[in-house]
Fold this protein.
Amino acid sequence: MDSFPGYSQMLSELFEMLDPEKMGSSFRQALSVGDRDGLIKSTAAYFRSRSARPYCKHLDRSQCTRETADRAVKGDVTVINIPHTFPEGKIDWLFNPTLTTPPVNHEWLWQLNRMRFWMDLAVAYEETKDEKYAQAFNSQLYSWVATAGNHSDDWNAAGSVWRTIEAGLRMMYSWCLGFETFRTSPSFTDENICLMLSSMFRHCVHLQAHHKLRNNWLLMEMSGLYTFAALFQEFKCSSAMRSYAAETFSKAILLQILPDGMHDELSPDYHSVTLSCALAFSNIARHEGIKNELPSEFISKLELSFESALAMSMPPLISPRTNDCFTSSVSRKMKQALEIFPDRQNFLWGASNRKEGKAPSSTPSSSRFLPWAGFAVMRSDWSADALCCCFDVGPLGAGHMHHDKLNIQIYKGSQELIYDDGGGQYEHSIYRAYGVNASDHNTVLVDGFMQKREAPRKVDSPIDANWISNEKFDYAKGVYDDVFGPLVLCEADLEIPPRKMAKHTREVRFYKPDLFCIKDTLESTDGEPHSYEMRLQLDTVKMEQLSAIPGAYLSDFGAVYDILILPLFPEELETRLLSGVDTPPMGGWFVGRNDLKLHKSTTLTMTISGKKDCRFATLLIPVRRGEKLPETEKCSANSFMLRFKGKEHLIDLEDLSR
């Protein structure tokens, strides 16, 4: 008797798709007489006794914890920073707590169904052999297959557990590791081994039929398909599935990785996804002895992509948050890179947190410009205490884009002094709307309106940013001359059409190793005067306006470094400090992503009103708390002498590139 609707069909599909010649005589005998119980028993016996899959042993376990495993046993999970305990420990795979406790975030249900905590269960079982972890896995697997195992036609819709990105990720990580780890446990029943195999096969049929045509989803979908087809070659279709996945993935990654190595969505987060998927392909092919299935261009493109991740790294060996992005570890990426490129000394340097290997080249400087992604990364050196700025002069990105051209982020050592928060969770809230717009970035608003461009998503030629980099200074320049519009928080905001109002030109010069000069030139393009508001975002609510330096502000992070914000024409500015402001265009919110939660911060605004054309000139100078502050002397209408740390810097606003 069927234990749930579709039970018999799942088992019939499985036994039809397994290759009898590979499954052995017991399976063939049971198949010949239609003995379902015998087929369940022989199939489970085969997979319990087959050799271990090396790929599963090499899956990253660094983020797995016993605490997460013990909570998962009790049905207590945390998804996208939102905890939930299911009654009686029974997980409801179709439940989303954010539907009753806003803000609504459909990612909660989707990411619950990635079963990330199954990896924690597997690691805990490997370490302890405590059957409670296997029992929890067995129970949860069965409940998922019984209640969610059949997908609807609207598989990518909110509330569906069959969104293709989840299907791919399940196959890549949690399901393959769960199966491999628990297959020898007596708590993982013969019946559930067969149901899981059948469901994995259904996943891959689904992925092959309904994958995306491009973007990072396609990479995860094909990685999941390839993982299953490589690890379960007992299925008749496995070879054809691998060929399809390898060809589709290779074409996609060759298109999505830009000539400078950055993924075309211009987010280090999704760049990491790309690297992880490519690494999964490479490792599976290597461990399963089918490396010849991947084209040669695949590896060279992958190496270039790892190089760009290192080029973009901030001093704590993390990536800057550009577009939708959480804090992404460059050290972790370099550890992955060493698996394929063990001779790369700069990868070893990053993977070992500077303890081994050799730092990237500093000739002619340690700074880097990625001309297709449009990121100018200005750094004093490769040390852990370096001063570093990421300046965005590039396109929107192919996906997950923010309206923030000309944005800057500044790190001194491990501290983020001027931040980009990454845009927050994928929820329906005013904070998410704010987080992806220019009001939550370090750029300029016009009449309270912000950037609203729709293109380009990618560029078809390298960007000319007038890039100069040498041992004394770095310089880059970018322009925003597209439309501005309101922060959309309600239906009425949609009725205000974006329009061209002004041209914004930003120049950034890094006076090594001490300070940055930001020059913003605004020109009216509609012939009307405007209010121009430059914004700087700081992750503190403590700011001091200095009486000794007109117009200057000093942060108080309570750490090693603070940042001095010194406008060179303070008499022209109206300044404000915003913290926790919810009215448009909003301000003073750090809209944290997966690793950081929403909290109040400071938005420093500097405004010039009633002008057709104007300019801002701002010095950004990291200082130690209690350190003697710099002195400035005006030399002419557009030049200043700054004295700091026993050195003199001539700030010539007529030409910052000299």
